[in-house]
Amino acid sequence: MFAFDNFEIGALYLIQDFMRTPKLTDFLESMTDLGNAGFIWLALAIVLICTKKYRKVGYATFLSLAMNLILTNGILKHIFKRARPFDTYPDLQPLIHEPTDWSFPSGHSSASFAAAFVLYHYMPKKFSIPALILATLIAFSRLYLGVHYPSDVIGGAAIGYLTAWASEKFMTYTEKKTSAKSQNLAHKKRAESA
């Protein structure tokens, strides 16, 4: 475990000492801002819900984000209670206002991948690939800005995948139930008219 901890903090020091530049900082701060409270993904879900063609995708995205919020912020952060890297290592300088909640898992990463994996499953690649790239940039921004460990981000991405999978399964289940109900109703109407 000690070696893993050394790897994690070593990765953050590597970023701090060798990667940070003013332009990259501005860009990755904007990526983090897009991920704040899952704003970009919620906005996208609402837009999709308002379209006839992609309404189902919008609902699946919204459901994945809701499950993700409950699991990540409501449960897991309070179970693991992992301190932020800048709290444990004072010479690690965060580049944004210091978050006050727990570090594991990364909420930005989990929400981003919760939405992006749903989009990857349902949407054409010309939309879903950019969503995955955006999710990756938002997740990396949390490392670059010094507010998460690598395992926070990886764990967040895994939880995002899990909630996307659960959302897709729920949507498939409800579609089958609705389809079966419609077929039964149609069969009943045909029997009554015969």
Describe the protein's architecture and organization.
Helices cover 78% and strands 0% of the residues. It is built from 8 helices and no strands. The longest helix is centred in the last third of the chain and has 44 residues, at 150-193.
Q: Which outline best applies?
A: elongated
- Give the total of beta strands: 0
What is the subunit arrangement here?
single chain
Radius of gyration: 20 Å
Span from first to last CA? 72 Å
Please state roughly what percent of the residues sit in beta strands, choosing from under 5%, 5-15%, 15-25%, 25-35%, 35-45% or over 45%: under 5%
Helix-strand sequence: HHHHHHHH
Q: Please tell me the overall pLDDT.
A: 93
Alpha-beta content class: mainly alpha
Most strands sheet: none
Low-confidence stretches: none
What is the topology?
Layout: H1 2-18, H2 22-35, H3 39-49, H4 55-80, H5 85-88, H6 107-122, H7 125-144, H8 150-193
Helix pairs in contact: 2-7, 3-4, 4-6, 4-8, 6-7, 6-8
Keywords:
194 residues, mainly alpha, 8 helices, 78% helix, elongated
Short structural description:
By secondary structure, this protein is mostly helical. It is built from eight helices and no strands.
